[in-house]
Amino acid sequence: MAIPDPTVERVKLARAGREWFSDVMLTSLLLGHRPRRFNTPYQLCSQGRQLLSLIDAPAGNSGGDPAVYWEFKLNALQPGHENRWSDLAFHWPDRLLIVELKTEAGSVRERQVDEYIQLGLHHYPDIRVDFLYITRDRVPQAPTGLPERTHYRTTTWEHVAQAIDAAWNGVYGEDGLHAARFVNWIRTDLMTGKPWKRDEMMTTPPAVDTRSQADEIADALRIAELVQEDHKQRALPYNFATRSDAEDFRSALREELVRMATTGDERINHVRPWVWTVSSTGNPLTPAGLASGVEVRLSYYKASIA
């Protein structure tokens, strides 16, 4: 297993914010490793299995492990309408559990719960569709008139901290240490309302100098902000061995841009990534593109990406 160090992740995800940081860390503790792709079925690790059962009691009686989805896509009811993305989802043959994480009081969108439940019931008509809200301070009331095929529950981040303690207690080495550090952050920073000082964290370099796709996407988002501002096309300075590798990265970056746009973030909602090759018109814009003949580029479009 390889649980990310929350001290390092806080620096990497400084621009993304506290809610995204919490999402990545909790998902990592469920899987036993850092998630990489949205809307992709993952498996629980042994500690993650116990953690889920402590957060969601029915999970322990569901008969088998669910497929775990990080950033789960709920398609719109009608073409042309916006899709929705829940932070987590757990899919058993007879049950879908949609999980939404909230660390900021102002991030609760009106009728969000109703909408997610409605989409879940529509797309999964033959199974139970349950919803779990994880919040810091207040516990939102359940929507009225819920159908029999669904159940709404809430819990707090303090309860999640207790569950992580219980599930990861006795795990030695870096994984256990990183789990304990995240629990400590929940209690000393999140639950006490300590400000998320984005600019201050970004001045502190990570303790390790490793590059992951998540790191490169974070850098790509900063370049996308420049494209949104001046409308000038730019190429990402990454070396892709094949066009397929570039297409995979473009897809992951586009998913993140769509996710940001659907949450109301308009900073880079007019920027779209695409793949340039030597067979396209024009010349490479980066040394990496000159060497490999492949680039992922960012361009400005008048229409929003979502």
TrEMBL record:
Stated name of the protein: Uncharacterized protein
